[in-house]
Structures are given as structure tokens and as C-alpha cells.
Amino acid sequence: MESGFKSRALEVNLAETRETAHIVTASMSTVHAATNNQNILDTVPKSGAADLRKTRSVFNNIILTTTGAARALEEILPEIRRIGFMADSVRIPTSTSSLIMLNVTFKTKLEKTGEPMLTRNLINEIYKKAAGGAQKGMVVYSDRQNVSSDLVGYPAAIVIEGVETHTRTGFIPVDSGTLIECGVQSSCDINIPVAHAKIFGWYDNELGSYVNFLSKLTVYVEKNMP
Predict the structure, then answer these.
(1) What is the pLDDT of residue 79?
(2) What pLDDT, on the 0 to 100 scale, is given for residue 2?
(3) Element (DSSP H or E) covering residue 6
(4) What spatial distance separates the first Cα and last Cα of the chain, rounded to whole Å?
(5) CB distance 117 to 169 below 8 Å
(6) pLDDT per 10-residue tile (average), the chain, 226 residues
């Protein structure tokens, strides 16, 4: 179930940015509340266990582990397969509410002034528009400085922490020799702009995000059954 609600939150988060510019690569880390498959106390791992952290006490540790969110996301957004999306999870000793930290690198363009087109304000405006439009109720945009307990029971797939959205634009230098090798006749070196964005999104991995939308899906199915 964990990868289900995490993937839903991640899909909503990433889907809003993918139309803005060409995604070069992306990764996600989730700071995740404890789940039922973790141990209350340290236990001895089974023979041949690959992940020795999973048997450590959930109450006393920050535990780095894996997540199935990347594979699940590829089923929802198949185009993500081409960028080799990476995902990991850090379990913390809280009962609910988790945080996605999404890192996306875009191939972008510059304004005529030389300033980057992809900015913090642009990304936040995309989420604000989604929160008031087709994704209303699923995406919530917040300018507050939230902590995890603020999101307990919050009925949204993702709550964007707009005050923490950040972007940086850099340049990949390509010399004329490399361009000629690629079949592009040029006597000049070029610099290709790329923008990196970091986006934070909260979700209540129990009542708020998962159970709320599972209930909505159940009602929808019941109403539309022949």
C-alpha cells in the first residue's frame, strides 16, 4: 500500500511539471512515516537478507530504504521510463504524514534578456493553476511553512510547499568539434541551458491521501456500475 499512495502523490507532483519543459532526468526522496512492516524492536535479520536496516527498530532510528514508487510511476506515466527515474525512502519514527522531495532537471530556454525561462515563480504558478483547475481537491498549493502534523488527515493527494520551491539554471558547454562530430557544422562553441528544480510536497499517507481517494474511487465505481 505504501507505494500506492506515495506514487499517487508523486504522479500528481510530477505531472504538473512535465509539460513545462523537456525533462532530462529526475529523482525523488520521500521522508516517510512508519509503516506496518517495520519492527518495533531490533530483530535478527533472516539468513541471506539483503536489506539489514528493515529489521531495525522503527522507534529509535532514521532508516534509509527502498521504495516501489519509481516502478509504479512508470505504469502511470510511461514516458518517465526514458529518463531513468530514481526513488528512495527515508523512514522516520512518526505515525503519519510524509514528505516528497522531487528533483527534476529540465532542458530549457532563455528569455531574450538572457534570464532563464524556468523559474521558481513559474513552477509555483503551474501548481497554483492546477490547484484551482482540473486537479482541484487533489493538488493543494500552500505558502505556509508547514510541518508534518499540520497535514494529518488533510484530504489531498499532495500539498505543495511553495515557499521551498527552488530552481537553478546552469549551462552545458559543447565545443564546435563535438558539434561537427554530431553532424552540425559550426565554428562556434555553444552553451546549452539546463534548469534544476527542487519541489516539496506533503501527503498524509494514511487517512488524508490514501483512504480519502480510495473512498472517492469506491463511490465513483458504485455510481457508474451498470
Answers:
(1) 77
(2) 45
(3) helix 2-18
(4) 29
(5) no
(6) 50 56 85 90 90 91 88 79 87 93 91 90 92 89 95 91 96 91 88 93 85 86 88
168-207 tens-digit pLDDT: 999 999 999 898 988 888 889 999 999 999 999 999 988 8
Q: Is 16:81 a contact under the CB 8 Å cutoff?
A: no
Listed in order, strand segments (DSSP E) in 66-189 are: 86-91, 98-107, 139-142, 158-161, 166-174
Provide the residue ranges of all domains of the chain, joining segments of one domain with +. 2-224
Locate 59 and state its grid cell: 522507534
Q: For the beta carbon of residue 169, count every other beta carbon within 10 angstroms.
A: 17
Amino acid sitting at position 159? V
Largest CA-CA distance found in the chain, in angstroms, rounded: 67
Enumerate residues 6+ apart whose C-beta is below 8 A from 105: 23, 24, 25, 26, 194, 195, 196, 197
The CATH classification number of 2-224 equals 3.30.360.10
Q: Which long-range contacts (CB under 8 A, 24 or more apart) does 214-218 make?
A: none
Residue with cell 529518463: 83
Alpha-carbon distances of 91 from 32, 39, 43, 110, rounded to whole Å: 5, 12, 17, 39
Whole-angstrom Cα distance, residue 164 to residue 120? 9
Of the candidates 54, 89, 85, which has an alpha carbon nearest to the alpha carbon of residue 71? 85
Overall residue count recorded for the chain in this entry: 226
Alpha helices for 66-149 (secondary structure H): 69-76, 120-132
Taking a C-beta distance cutoff of 8 angstroms, is the pair 6, 28 a contact? no
